[in-house]
């Protein structure tokens, strides 16, 4: 790619040609779902654009010029298109996303050049962005940025963004994406982990590093460098690059030798001092399941004859390390003053993050801060119940009709609470909805269990504390 020309390039003509040829998000989704055999292009231009920018096929030069009537020459000059005789091909797949058009590598490049393969907007990228607490950071670091989608979306929201990646080719594609989206300037840095930002601090760090726990390191976009643990490499350093009160959000996978201590590796890597942390395990797989999961997505190993020895190689690697399982999850860190630390660990199966996830994480840290500073009994505080809590009931058919058997509630993002609830806990939540302190319903709660109100007061206060930590209630005095 011609970097000098890219810096001066305005993509308006190219974007206009794509729109005129109906190379749009909806059309691409239809093409992807139906496949090339069933899909019927709406025009010759659309067919050529799909061949060039989605399928990675070459087409006749004349056909490409007709499909790109105003931008063909500039795309050749930039190095996005390559001419070979009378044929033309694109070096990059161009995808239409809700944010706009973005470039990425064609999947077939993973077969030939896995060492510098650049993914598109992966599901994990959208997942980690949903983890960002509901804050308004001025400065953001997009760590292991790949094609730059996270950093670009933060820049479009008005943040000052720095983005770094080990793969120089990823940064080239990220700069192309910056031009395609028309976003503000970003400081792109090349280097390993946090080396490119030595001595710098940020209000927010978002990290989606290569976390796949494989024996190889053959794909810089996916695999953890051989024999290197992402948690050990990054978690001790992240807080050093945060401004006071700043947050770091990171996805990671890690191996464990005992299911009783699933959190051992990442928990040991989190600094004890000056950091508040939320460590969450969302999935756990056996070595065999993990190998099948990742190799099943890799185009290099779709053939059974190729996949079997590779799975065996992975499993033998885990056996040498005495690995019992591999966990997937995330870590949220907040830079705090010494003496304000807390470390919270949770494990629950979650397949996707809801849009409310960042708000719930922000509320978790605010509630923890309020608890630390609060003096006096929680029974005398006016709380309010957060919006969006869901309650479901299970019932059994009795002699007189349906009878409630179980009740379950979930927090708005289904993250920090998803479990059964008894009538006493439900009454505490109702007190919060009514804006009255829990002490005013203490006698009622005692009657539910046939106990003295003063005797159960300590247990009820612990229930209130748990509801705060699980973000189901917040103090009325605090405005979120």
TrEMBL record:
Origin species: Roseibacillus persicicus
Q: Which residues form the DUF7059 domain?
A: 43-90
Q: Decide whether keyword Transferase is in the record.
A: yes
The parts of the chain that form a coiled coil are none
Which InterPro entries does the record match to this protein? DNA_methylase_N6_adenine_CS (IPR002052), DUF7059 (IPR055487), DUF7782 (IPR056684), N5-glutamine_MTase (IPR050320), SAM-dependent_MTases_sf (IPR029063), Small_mtfrase_dom (IPR007848)
Domain annotation DUF7782: ranges = 363-475
Q: Which PROSITE patterns match?
A: N6_MTASE
What are the protein's UniProt keywords? Methyltransferase, S-adenosyl-L-methionine, Transferase
Q: Which Pfam families match?
A: DUF7059, DUF7782, MTS
Which residues does the UniProt record annotate as the domain Methyltransferase small?
130-247
Q: Which domain of life is it from?
A: Bacteria
Name of the protein in its database record: Methyltransferase
The answer to whether keyword Glycosyltransferase applies is: no
What molecular function terms (GO) are annotated for this protein? Answer: N-methyltransferase activity; nucleic acid binding; S-adenosylmethionine-dependent methyltransferase activity
Q: For this entry, list what GO says about its biological process.
A: methylation
